[in-house]
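Possible regression after last week's pipeline update?

I re-ran a chain I had predicted before the update to compare outputs. Posting the input and the new output here so someone can diff against the archived version. Not blocking, just want to make sure nothing changed silently.
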Amino acid sequence: MSTYIAPIRDMQFVLNEVAGLEDICALPGNEECSVELVESILDEASKFATGVLDPINQVGDRVGHVCKDGVVTTAPGFKEAYKLFAETGWNSMPFDPEYGGQGLPAVVSMAVNEMWKGANMAFGLCPMLTGGAIEAIAHHASDELKQIYLPKMIEGTWTGTMNLTEPNAGSDLAAISSKAKAVGDGSYLVSGTKIFITWGEHDVAENIIHLVLARLPDAPPGLKGISLFLVPKFLVNADGSLGKRNDLICASIEHKLGIHGSPTAVMSYGENEGAVGYLIGDENKGIGYMFTMMNHARVNVGLEGVGIAERAYQHALWYARERVQGKIIGDTSNEKKTILHHPDVRRMLMDVKSRTEAMRTLAYYAAANIDRAHAGDAAAQSRVDLLTPVVKGWSTEQGVELSSTALQVFGGVGFVEETGAAQYYRDSRITTIYEGTTAIQANDLVGRKLAREKVPGAAMKALIAEMTATAEEIAGDSQLAGIAANLKTAIAAQQTVTDWILANYESNPQAVHAGSVPFLKQTGIVVGGWLMAKSAAIAVKHIAEGSTDDFYKAKLATATYFAAHQLPFAAAYAAEITGGAESVFALPEALF
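New output (post-update):
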């Protein structure tokens, strides 16, 4: 059985040579960060991922957690692992030093978080949701709430959740019916039921801080009438100690396809008088505040696609190097060889490896732009806004596909739970659904981020121009000419669809949205291919300068594969999007 090993060499390459870590460290507020410090952080995080989180991954999957009388006991080893996680400071990395954070750049946290997701995705969901809650509180809550809750959450003593979904309101947040009413002392009483609450109840931390969407009396209907409340599991005394249990309970835990180590709770608020909560920000502004948390979560869920694909790849590669089976096509020797020598096994492994590298590069590139945006770079913020739905939607769809491909390498034994390969496939499946389905990400991309942008299409056109410049720059190098040619064709397809969406959005929005998911996938492939092309150019430069590091040869090979095998899909998506809308609606409802 293989063990997860963080791909530190590729992480460092992307951080240093594509994302521009040295420049990020030079930004205001990042003065304490350095390339050398990040190397040490990655090394220590790798040890934690391999030594602490990976060993309890299968335990979490097979044993799961137990819910009895509203009390959830997590899988063996999870409580101890979380205690060590918090004590060693991993939870505090990206947050404000004023409240006990380390203030490290987002791109550094991105690399470290990938390790948690690759080693143990179910475990990694707990600090991920806590981080999103911290972001929402830090950006929108009163100074008093920040002082009370942020230090404990940042150190990891208290965890956080996101409470949006209700039984009658899935992705349609306008249908939320949970209620809140003012008490008169600055607090509110919250009542209602929320479902699908990740790590909504557990035994790994002292307190759980729930961020809950609810309606105040006389609030406007729809999205404009929703407020955000901080509702702690245990109330907090004036001296910071924990007080009595709040009026909330975990009514049940969902039995799920995957991520069994992550307790997904049905939370009931106000079974008696009402759960005490505190308004975050202004009344009826909750949706906007929650999006601060959701955007943080969406980028990190996209990273789950990277982590699960990397883990599945490592496991499949281990098996391919061990398993001897069948005669190798075209091999005239009589030697018994591993299945790694079969052409299609090579294709599958190359596919998973190259696409995972493209996803990683895209995620880190987006995180680097988050850091630049925090420093006041408006163009970087525009790039983050454009790429957030792509990182989430494309990377998670890729994670499902690639974990399936990795399972295929195992053949029949991959379908058997004992090998462990099936877990990655099952765990990956949720990622395209929670924090906004792929369709929701795609609708956001074509709607808010393209057609309804302040200057429609401006961000995408700027990105296309930058990608085109790269293709032109590398076209003259014989080792990169093939990549450049495929990239140019893919960019042209992206331009064609962008123009078509902008021309048709107002007159025929249904036709545009019928192709929104293919457009998201096309964007992921083209931007991923662009970043892989940049990576290849960097590798070629190192080789030309005399480097004998085989890593650069491998990087050129995976980039070439991606250009040859993935970039051609961009043209196919263009044909589907611009010419396929009519057939989507061709079948009368009665004939489905």
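Follow-up from reviewer: compared with the archived run. The mean pLDDT is 96. Marking as no regression found.
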